[in-house]
Amino acid sequence: MEIGTVYEHRPGRTITEADNVLFTTLTMNTQALHLDAAYAADTTFGERLVNSMFTLSTLVGLSVAQLTQGTIVANLGFSDIAFPKPLFHGDTLYAETLIAAKRESSSRPGEGIVTFEHTGRNQHGVVVATATRKTLVRREPSA
């Protein structure tokens, strides 16, 4: 992984009503904006929103095949999470990731810490989510 490299994760993921309702109910989130169509119709948005935690989870999930499958040891933390625009049922989420930083672990030989900056966009290219994630990963041995 080279600092400054941007990975585009494809294909995207079209979010369905079933996805949103299942995730929202599984996580005990009773927010009417996600579950109650009549309530949501009377809000600024005019319809139900996709649960932002589902958006975040899917954003990270879209990156796994290219970046961390078989290499990740642990997620160390998330920061700078933002949802500048909502996702709605039927929107498609596309993800890209910038390798923002990396360093060798000072306490775990053979492992390193990589900082990812994830960006999620809808099918119109509008940014709907951003997050910075630090991970502990296995690294190749030094030469």
Automatic annotation (TrEMBL):
Residues annotated as domain MaoC-like: 2-119
Signal peptide range in chain numbering: none
Superkingdom, natural source: Bacteria
Pfam families for the chain: MaoC_dehydratas (PF01575)
PANTHER family, alphabetized: BETA-METHYLMALYL-COA DEHYDRATASE (PTHR43664:SF1), MONOAMINE OXIDASE-RELATED (PTHR43664)
Family from the record: Belongs to the enoyl-CoA hydratase/isomerase family.
Name the record gives this protein: MaoC family dehydratase
Upper classification of the organism: Bacteria, Bacillati, Actinomycetota, Actinomycetes, Mycobacteriales
